[in-house]
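PT: before anyone asks, these are the final sequences, not the draft ones from last week. 309 residues across everything. Please model them as a single complex and drop the result in this thread when it's through.
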Amino acid sequence: MPDPTVEQMLAEAKAQFASSLPAKAAALQDHLARGAWEEAKRAAHKLRGSAGTYGFVVLGVAAGEVEEALIAAGLQPDAAAAARIGDKAREARAEAERIAREGA
Amino acid sequence: MAREGVGCESHDGRLALPVAEAELPAAPLGEGSAVLLHPEHPWAPTASTERRVVARAEERVEARRECVMAPLVYPRIVGSWKVLVVDDDPDIRRIAALSLERIGKFQVTVAASGEEALELVRKDMPDLVLLDVSMPGTDGPTTLQLLRAIPGAERLPVIFFTATSNDAEVQRLVSLGAIGVLPKPFDVADLPRRVRSIAAESGLH
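LR: through. Structure below.
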């Protein structure tokens, strides 16, 4: 059996990453629900960089918005800010689940 | 060493910004400072042009400093480059390593933390390090600082990876001693070319 091509290896890596996205987005929501703002920022930061790099731009942007909002709130969002951030995280999760379901 | 808001102007008046960011040896005004500028740098004078530039303080004071042209010395790399990728995110390590190995034909080693990176550098010196800025524990800038204390790694070329790539942050990271900054997300297919480009601009060959 010939070695896989670069394209095949990239496609495999992308598919595996896609299947891991719902859990990552759920973890982000969990951090937010617990008020673990630093962990939430870290999770959003990671998702922002990795999702964009793997080609999932919409998810990367949504995760970036969560991160930026947390930073803007000084990692101590009030109730209104926390609600807005929660909405963004829900959008990110919905996109993550769509990607895992549809593959792109 | 003194960090100063000084720029070097070539004879045609262009401002050499990298020199403006350089650490200049403290010297009385008018007595001159040596500035390293790679001869292949686009702003470096060619042999046919005057190999002198005049540095001028931003305030346009009368101070004049002679900038001595000298090449940055990096060892020539024989064979494929050994690149160490440092990132706490396994998804980034995987895709960066895949890109650099399979597309760029680099030899790649990965580390999941600053501490692991330091250990790997002590064992087997890479030619270049791609270093994530934001990592738990020892972050990228701290890792770079610790790296410089390792014998042989004093001038090891380091490129930062960061998702926060505004101009101020890029300038801050370069001022820490990195040869460049790559934003995240990055184009997987283009990563090797970007790395080579930054390395070439810094005199690594």
